[in-house]
Amino acid sequence: MKRAPLILGFETSCDETGVAVVRGSTVLSNVLATQVDEHARFGGVVPEVAARAHVEAIRSLSHRALRDAGVHSMDLDAVAATRGPGLAGALMVGFSYGKALAWALDIPFIGVDHMEGHLFAPRFENPEYGPPAVVLLASGGHSEIVHLRRWGDYEVLGATIDDAAGEAFDKLARFLGLGFPGGPAIDREAETGDPAAVAFPRALADRPLDLSFSGLKTAVTTYVRSHHEAGDLPPMADLAAAIQEAIVDVLVTKTMNAVAATGVPAVGGGGGVLANRRLRQRLAEECAGAGVALHLPSAELCTDNGAMIAAAAAFRLGRGEVTSPDAEVDSSMRLGA
Amino acid sequence: MKVLAIETATAASSIALAEDNLVVATAGRVDRRGHVGFLVPALDFCFAQAGWTPSDIELVAVDVGPGLFSGIRAGLATAQAVAGAVGAPIVPVLSLDAVALRAATGHRRIWAVVDVRRREVAVGPYRPVPGGVVRDGATELCSPAAFRASLEGDAADVLVVGDWRALPEGTLLGLHAIKTGRPRYPVAEAIAEIARSRAERGEVPHPDEVRPRYMREPDVTINWGDFRSEGPWA
After folding, report:
1. Number of H helices, E strands in chain A
2. Which A positions 37-66 lie with beta carbon below 8 A of chain B?
3. Is B86 near chain A, with CB under 8 Å?
4. What is the extent of the structural domain holding B132?
5. pTM value?
6. Which of A187, A279, A334, B230 gets the highest tally of CB atoms within 10 A of its CB?
């Protein structure tokens, strides 16, 4: 059998510079320079700060990924980089670097859809994962439920009509003074809280596959302000647990609706929000109850990384799809479009 | 010495291949936004014209600004990737230096101008010397009015080069002893020339020290200050 191609993947769509070397389903190296501390003081990802940090990090990170994998750049079969969606200035760094490296090494370059990368991420640790499946993709920048019909054939069944789930975590954590990024902060705070302490609303009950989080934001701020004035605000742990429950509940319910609608035997997931422990627990319970398999990547492959970009690139390369040298980034790229 | 020079710090992108003093291939395009799509096809074109392969490169020269932020980063990322792949050193060049080098004057003081948007320009004064120019004061970012004030305070005959057309109309009006001239944009041939002479003097930094010269702090306006103000603890 022909050996799977050796691919170097770059991910610079948001606030993590990720570089990885992948062969088939094996991650040979996966290095990351996170910018969390640089953005934390602003309470969110600042596009210009992100782009600056990527260009500072990418050279040494690229060399480290090769060194950690024990391979030489001459051994590579292809180079891949995220083409979109994401922050344009940030995307341009990895895309330019990857394209130029492929040119210098005279090997193919593949510009990858970031969301397709997330669709491939569960494969590394779950060999049985694959189509047909319903995949929940949720992060600070996107929230959608995808029908993975075949590799390369994706239908977005539902998506958020306003904020992304991770954005809701970030904004509410900031509102409560819990810090950035909001997902991990609320996850930690909620550990000892009672998720039933407050019944925050679950939006869009009449649209089984779509998501909405801006109503929750308003409900929480209204609730907190009035109870703060009245002096009967529940403990922070309870608030965090109730907020987390509201977000998780919507994500899980809509995902299971999609499973019922499509009849697929498996659920996958990707994006930073899928690292949330309560979400993982609830998905495991619901999938077990429905008799469908659940394939989630470990937390480090849920968040943005170069390995998933290399994995999606391997699939595209196998179909003979390489990216033209004159390609630009596409910050508003849409899965399946 | 075979030099690859990359210029994407302004609206005019270019690539040049030079061997010692001789430019053997160039490619250029004027487009404020298309830096990422320009670079690799231009490399392909120039290397085919020159009959070079990437492993021939002995030095990579790159414009690190000041100028358009995204263009600077696309050029630097490209330079870093190519230099790393072929094991060549990388030498950064200021856009203003490259503009001033091509100013045609034997005696006037040269002020180079590069557009950095947000109603500011990057400027720097230079003095012509045999075979080139030398920097003759600090480079800085300033408003058109502040630039005019600098020119008014300059007692010498002055040639303003670079993107002075980016200045609001009338900025230079009524100034005595001021001429405007070409070039409008830095070009890769000038980047190659400056980098080669630096490399010959041993001025080759570690690749991690080659960074963009934005000359401006990032804009950190975040769209949710209004949201925070709702918080009871804000």
Report:
1. 11, 10
2. 42-44, 46, 48-49, 51-52, 54-56, 58-60, 62-63
3. yes
4. 103-180
5. 0.95
6. A279
Q: What is the pLDDT of residue A2?
A: 74
Q: Is A175 on the interface with B (CB under 8 A)?
A: yes
Cα–Cα distance, A89 to A330 (Å, whole number)? 11
pLDDT digits (tens, 9 = 90+) for A53-71: 999 999 999 999 999 999 9
Q: Which residue of A has its CA nearest to B81?
A: A101
Question: Closest to A325 (Cβ–Cβ): which among B40, B69, B228?
Answer: B40
CATH number of this structure's domain A129-296 = 3.30.420.40
Q: Which pLDDT belongs to residue B131?
A: 87
Element of type H or E holding A18: strand A16-23
The CATH number linked to B121 is 3.30.420.40
| Residue B88 and residue B121 in one domain | no
Distance from CA of A207 to the nearest CA of B (A): 27
Describe the crossing of helices B69-86 and A47-69 by its angle, rounded to 10 degrees. Answer: 10
Kindly identify which residue of chain B lies nearest to residue A228, measuring between CA atoms: B232
In a domain? residue B233: no
Question: How many Å lie between the alpha carbon of B12 and the closest alpha carbon of chain A?
Answer: 16
Asked whether residue B80 is domain-assigned, the answer is yes
Closest alpha carbon within chain A to B223: A44
Same domain, B89 and B6: yes
Give the list of residues 6+ apart from residue A231 with CB closer than 8 angstroms, or none: none
Please give the CATH topology (third level) of the domain spanning A6-120+302-318.
Nucleotidyltransferase; domain 5 (3.30.420)
- Structural domains in chain B (count): 2
CB count in 10 Å sphere of residue B174 = 8
